Amino acid sequence: EVQLVESGGGLVQPGGSLRLSCAASGFNFRIYWMSWVRQVPGKGLEWVANINQDASEKFHVDSVKGRFTISRDNAKNSLYLQMNSLRGEDTAVYYCAKQEGGWYSTWGQGTLVTVSS
Amino acid sequence: SYELTQPLSVSVALGQTARITCGGNNIGSRNVHWYQQKPGQAPVVVIYRDNNRPSGSPERFSGSNSGNTATLTISRAQAGDEADYYCQVWDSNILFGGGTKLTVL
Asked: In chain B, N or C terminus with fewer CB closer than 10 Å?
């Protein structure tokens, strides 16, 4: 069974840092692009970042550039999102998602990040 | 920057056909994907590349894309189809529409 399981969310103060992880199983992780997508509670979906198979290409939405970094470890079948200088507007559920070309075939259950003092 | 426009809400009578639109400049030249999201759950793809159904997506779901509008069509709507629906394209980056809440009356 194809599965993505996120972890690492929680409550953090403004200006703080968190590292999200996504454990992949049931498929050949190393041959897929992977993404992070977030959703403010009650709002729509927003793409945050994606990364190609060997991590030679990484893209981030403008609002997180310079603060968030996507990475992966193919040996561990894991995707990461390092989030620094967190702001209130980063509060959201963060989903890990497997890309099949330009669309998402599999999503994790999400992990909630709350930025608040 | 490219934008995708969806109606905030669509209502459909039980057993009738619902159509959810996604507007964008010359969207017909792009591949459009559709996701269903029920409360408290992660999104699930229901249509990819305009009109392809992944395994597990009911035959009642279909898609079309031409000109400036892509459309998700749900035939014989069921109560279980009530959800938020999002369109998505890959422009320079990945872009989602604002989402449409489907209500089955």
From this structure: N
